[in-house]
Amino acid sequence: MSSELQISPAIHDPQGQEKQQQAAGVGILLQIMMLVLSFVLGHVLRRHKFYYLPEASASLLIGLIVGGLANISNTETSIRTWFNFHDEFFFLFLLPPIIFQSGFSLQPKPFFSNFGAIVTFSVLGTFVASMVTGLLVYLGGLMFLMYRLPLVECLMFGSLISATDPVTVLSIFQELGSDVNLYALVFGESVLNDAMAISLYRTMSLVRSHSSGQNFFMVIVRFLETFVGSMSAGVGVGFTSALLFKYAGLDVDNLQNLECCLFVLFPYFSYMLAEGLSLSGIVSILFTGIVMKHYTYSNLSANSQRFVSAFFHLISSLAETFVFIYMGFDIAMEKHSWSHLGFIFFSILFIVIARAANVFGCGYLVNLARPAHRKIPMTHQKALWYSGLRGAMAFALALQSVHDLPEGHGQTIFTATTAIVVLTVLLIGGSTGTMLEALEVVGDSHDTSLGDGFEVVNSRYMTSYDDDEDTPSGSGFRTKLREFHKSAASFTELDKNYLTPFFTSNNGDYDDEDNIEQHHEERIPFTRRGNLNNRG
């Protein structure tokens, strides 16, 4: 009886319901209009090769302008209800397709041939950057240079602000052409970096809530438990899907719809499985994407391959464009604490220092372990350092910190992160093309300076290493690859001789897979946060 009394006012208030429906319609219409404007503007910018305003920056600006107009209008309250940046919506609906597509679009040969360097930059480097940033912010507070925060909260800030989003750099690589190894380093580091940053942030948040019984060793154990457990869940789901599609006999015309539906559901199953086990869904769905592309994809029929490639490209493009608009709109309408400008200024300085410690320190370690012909040039390290823009991941984690931390502390971190995201996306993003051309790591002129074993990412799609090429450079690369295989346990040989024959019908034939890949890339632009023709 009491429940009926509680819901009866809502039932007998048709005028209120009508206003809510109208507000919802206006909010959704506004979102669609901004998405259309962003895609059209991005196309115009790319067509005229205007790199000073990347599409990511244009989308953010559109959100800022519309949010600012809504903020000063009488419609702020009603529209805000349908356009708030909810971190749950971001992590559950917008981020999974973006992260899955990042793993799904990885080219296996350049990625795995640089796997050691990518893991070093993304795991060790992100840990170093987080610790350096957190400790410098803490010391800055002790020296009264900036707003003082407890050490654990400083480390939480260091973790969330270490999440990079180099969409602008990778987009320019696509347009102007780049060394494929540099592309693999920047792209691979950015992909694993997000997973590392989220795991570090959650670990530090857990330490803060159980600070009495934690020590440094247990923090490391908890982080490894989360990261390795999430990776195992993602790989396990990916392998399960490969076996299902190999033996279920779904690759026939009348079962294509079922085949595509099952393929689309597996990534989200991986994400929710990890979240349900208190692990990281982002790490899990990333590795599910890598495994499903490498094994499950080849078990699909040709029509289903074309469909799922187009589908995930479409979903990730919409999600990423919407994230930047969404972020700009919320920045304009959110209440910020601008009373601690010193915290913002020194935070920007400290993340630049931490990024340098990450890239150049890890680059030195990687070069120590590599033979002379595989060392990472200093120009490539500078490009990797400059590509460390902050984006949606840092913003979402900062928004989450508002709920995780005391009111003043969380708001200060959120305001500083907002300023850093806007600065890096708008200012640094706009100067990226000039910077990369000054380093001579992009453009047609770079083609003639490539050494043995290097290839170029052209304006249409990214090429891969060609082991069967009969040219001297191809022969030289085969020799280098053999040396690389001898120096460590070769995942490539294990994959070719055992994993690929077991999980697919290709019998380890990489060339067939590469031909299929190129065949589809000629029809579907190579995209994602990184592989974006639709992002700038």
TrEMBL record:
Highest taxon, organism lineage: Eukaryota
Gene3D superfamilies named among the record's database cross-references: 6.10.140.1330
Ion transport is among the record's keywords: yes
Compartments where located: Membrane
Membrane topology listed for this record: Multi-pass membrane protein
Keywords for the protein's UniProt record, in alphabetical order: Antiport, Ion transport, Membrane, Potassium, Potassium transport, Sodium, Sodium transport, Transmembrane, Transmembrane helix, Transport
Matches recorded under InterPro entries: Cation/H_exchanger_CPA1 (IPR018422), Cation/H_exchanger_TM (IPR006153), NaH_exchanger (IPR004709)
Keyword Ribonucleoprotein in record: no
Pfam family name, one: Na_H_Exchanger
Catalytic activity reported: K(+)(in) + H(+)(out) = K(+)(out) + H(+)(in); Na(+)(in) + H(+)(out) = Na(+)(out) + H(+)(in)
PANTHER family in the record: SODIUM/HYDROGEN EXCHANGER, SODIUM_HYDROGEN EXCHANGER 5-RELATED
Family: Belongs to the monovalent cation:proton antiporter 1 (CPA1) transporter (TC 2.A.36) family.
NCBIfam families given in the database record: b_cpa1
Name of the protein in question: Sodium/hydrogen exchanger
Protein species of origin: Camelina sativa
Gene that encodes it: LOC104714258
